[in-house]
Design goal:
It is built from no helices and 17 strands. It is mainly beta. The protein has a seven-stranded antiparallel sheet with strand order 5-6-7-8-9-10-11, with no helix packed on it. The chain has a four-stranded antiparallel sheet with strand order 1-2-3-4, with no helix packed on it. A hairpin with a 5-residue loop joins strand 14 (178-183) and strand 15. The radius of gyration is 17 Å and the shape is globular.
């Protein structure tokens, strides 16, 4: 809380997305490039509170994992971009606490952030089609909002506050300053923050402060 920094885990390959389970274990999507096959290998690494690493799951296919999230029942969801698709169309996979894998949903473009609302609906950011998709607990997909009409900007990071408002970071690949948008539960938009540089991950603390990670210019 005071800003002191230390290394919790090391030796991870292109880690993207982190989430804690109810027991305090940290789950991370890692991406390893196989120079022989020319494909990516997506794995989910579990890290105990003491820092011990193990492989929770490995997914088949030329996939790049971007984010992970837990639902209230302890199921883990990971969004994976298909590197063989021109739009990097993405699939959301579901893992039970015991590691049983199933396909939960899909989206036509490059998927980034995941976030659950208080009702158990899963929201996913599609940067190519500039859409925030909503998935009900049974996997039914619908459009929640299209947050930008700028063809150079797409949604990336997602986070809900305790009032059910969805915060979305937009990224423009350094074309122009980026923003964080706020959407009420019924989809009404407003601008929350401006003049950021490639904001990605979003997270709220217990006091309602929003923390944002930026990619260096």
């Amino acid at each position: 809380p005071g800003g002191g920094q230390s290394i919790f885990a090391a030796g991870l390959s292109q880690p993207h997305g982190v989430a804690f389970d109810h027991s305090g274990n940290l789950f991370v999507a890692t991406n390893t490039f196989d120079s022989v096959s020319g494909t990516l290998q997506l794995s989910i690494v579990k890290i105990t509170p003491g820092g011990v690493q193990s492989t929770f799951a490995t997914l088949s296919g030329n996939l790049f994992g971007e984010d992970v999230a837990f639902d209230s029942s302890g199921n883990l969801f990971v969004i994976a971009q298909d590197q063989n698709d021109p739009n990097q169309a993405s699939t959301i996979y579901k893992f039970t606490p015991g590691g049983v894998q199933s396909t939960f949903g899909s989206m036509p473009g490059q998927g980034f952030g995941l976030a659950f609302d208080g009702a158990g609906n899963l929201f996913a950011a599609d940067a190519v089609f500039q859409t925030i998709w909503k998935f009900t607990p049974d996997g039914t997909r619908s459009v929640f909002v299209i947050p930008s009409i700028n063809p150079d900007q797409g949604p990336v990071g997602l986070a809900f506050d305790r009032f059910g408002n969805l915060f979305v970071s937009t990224e423009s690949n350094l074309v122009e300053p980026d923003t964080i948008l706020k959407f009420t539960p019924d989809g009404m938009p407003s601008t929350f923050a401006m003049n950021l540089t490639n904001p990605r991950g979003l997270a709220f603390d217990r006091s309602g402060n929003l923390f944002v990670s930026e990619l260096a210019p």
